[in-house]
Specification:
single chain; alpha+beta; Phosphorylase Kinase, domain 1; four-stranded mixed sheet; 25% helix; disordered C terminus
């Protein structure tokens, strides 16, 4: 029977570090772990990881991350004693318990790729000065044009910390077929049975002159459900030639939404820039050529859309996800609530999209602004389409104001001075921009700054504050915003651009090269351009 031992365990606590290497110098090993203080913190504090740097003196060294996990083990000291020339099996062993191991640091992750930066590199010296707090060297640092910045490594090369078994297998739809060659021999060719022709999206810039009349793919490549939906969408485009994607989704059953991509590309194209940006337009129609299409221009009310307050955020956006989780069938019918969910009437819940066609604004307060011929130009421009810039900006700001007010109070007051000052603003715009009925603004582009003699010498902040005071003087307030404190704001952040996308219904396009969205330059800010305060 094996002999048992009774050991007295002292009340001492230890941290076990499973060091991934052979330790010859304990001091250097501790330094690579961050020192004894780092290890002590792992025992006394809620530290989850310890970083191991094999080159602790190199500021660009990428660490190996070790996980600190709780354990319940004993630390034993085993002493072996034997005389000279005595066999090992006759040696005497003594075991002594030193304490308990409450936590262990285990290095299971793979080390990241390392990049050795030359020690004489300027950036290496700068980082060393930052870590050491050498103020003089930091102040004397200058970046020259001939400096080579290729020696600066990224914070991390590989995002994978653990090995991954790819388990390579041939894709099931792929078939190996023999193909006869010209010399009579046979070669093996791989054929994808499920290969599908790309449903190419036609996305134009406002400056493009050629308008597509048909899709670039054969309609026979569409699936059966896509062909059926394409016929249904074709009828919608007969009703009106321009739609937003959200408006189309509001007019088709939820069970068909997953087939929208192919059906939509079969019937319409879209613009990346201009007043019809992100609208879907029937093939063969150019809305820039005729003023009757002014009602299909879009208005962007980003900054006021919060999903938690909109009916789409509560029910529509997550409908497909909820159906997948709860196995509930999607509706095959379109009810009246869904059919009108994309409209803005100024009285009900906020629209479910941040991008509206003007024809979808049914609020009577905007009827004069949208449909009055005196507020329109005969030429379509990139910034404001067929409207004068000041009119288009007024429409956009007032819609945002109403949406913002409804979200705060649950109701929005009617507008009583929506057209106040517009006649003077239009006259001023025509005078300063030299507007011509046949060619539009001929001297200055749509995005050039106005050279106002009264504002020469003013900074951006001062000019912006002056504009806001003029608006406030005409009866439009900004809540508790103190215009005198405008200098406290960072102007670039205050006037910053937001992501150019539909925040409620993003495009569900897999693998389509649509092209990068070109953000419209809006340097020529009119009186009513108030994108800053997110009204």
């Amino acid at each position: 029977m094996d002999q048992s031992f009774n050991l007295k365990v002292p009340n001492r606590k230890y941290v076990l570090v499973e060091y991934p290497g052979r330790v010859k110098n304990v001091d250097r090993a501790l330094k690579s772990l961050g020192g004894e203080k780092t290890i002590a913190n792992a025992l006394n504090k809620e530290v989850k990881t310890i970083e191991l740097r094999y080159r602790p003196e190199d500021p660009f060294s990428h660490p190996v991350v070790g996980d600190v996990v709780p354990t319940s083990s004993l630390l034993l000291k085993v002493t072996k004693r034997k005389k000279k020339n005595q066999p090992d099996d006759e040696a005497a062993f003594k075991a002594e318990a030193l304490g308990t191991i409450l936590k262990s640091c285990r290095f299971r992750a793979m080390a990241d790729f390392q990049y050795l930066v030359p020690k004489d590199e300027k950036f290496s010296r700068l980082r060393s000065s930052l870590e050491k707090g050498n103020v003089n060297e930091i102040l004397n640092y200058k970046l020259d044009e001939e400096d080579n910045m290729t020696h600066i490594p990224p914070p991390v090369f590989s995002m994978r910390e653990t090995p991954f078994d790819y388990a390579y297998h041939q894709f099931q739809p792929i078939l190996r077929v023999r193909v006869r060659q010209r010399d009579g021999s046979y070669a093996i060719k791989l054929v994808n049975r499920f290969k599908r022709t790309a449903l190419e999206l036609i996305s134009l810039s406002f400056e493009d002159t050629e308008i597509p009349t048909s899709p670039k793919f054969d309609l026979t490549v569409l699936k059966a459900d896509e062909r059926a939906l394409a016929d249904e969408i074709k009828k919608l485009f007969e009703e009106r030639p321009v739609w937003t994607r959200v408006a189309l989704l509001s007019n088709i059953a939820h069970s068909k939404h997953s087939s929208l991509r192919g059906a939509l590309n079969a019937n319409a194209y879209t613009f990346r820039t201009g007043p019809f940006r992100e609208c879907w337009i029937k093939y063969g129609i150019d809305p820039r050529k005729d003023q009757k299409y002014h009602v299909y221009q879009n208005v962007d009310i980003r900054g006021t859309m919060e999903l938690s307050h909109s009916r789409m955020g509560r029910r529509g956006t997550n409908r497909l996800l909820e159906a997948k989780i709860h196995k509930t069938p999607l509706s095959n019918e379109v009810n009246e609530e869904q059919r009108t969910s994309h409209l803005f009437d100024g009285r009900g819940a906020v629209p479910k999209s941040a991008l509206l066609c003007l024809c979808d604004v049914t609020d009577t307060d905007f009827k004069t602004l949208i449909y009055s011929p005196g507020y329109m130009k005969s030429v379509c421009t990139k910034r404001s389409g067929f409207y004068y810039d000041c009119v288009y900006d007024r429409i956009r700001v007032l819609i945002k104001k109403k949406v913002y007010e409804y979200k705060l109070t649950g109701k929005a007051a009617s507008l009583t001075n929506a057209t106040q000052g517009l006649e003077e603003a239009i006259a001023k715009e025509i005078k300063m921009r030299k507007y011509d009925e046949s060619t539009g603004f001929v001297d200055k582009g749509d995005h050039e700054e106005e050279d106002d003699e009264g504002e020469k010498g003013l900074s951006k902040e001062e000019s912006f504050a002056k504009t806001l005071r003029e608006i406030q003087a005409q009866g439009f307030g900004f809540g508790s915003m103190d215009l005198e404190k405008l200098a406290e704001f960072d102007f670039d952040v205050l006037y910053g651009e937001e992501a150019d996308e539909d925040i409620v219904e993003p495009e569900d396009v897999e693998g389509e090269a649509v092209g990068e969205d070109e953000e419209e330059e809006r340097e020529d800010k009119s009186l009513w351009e108030l994108n800053d305060f997110d009204l």
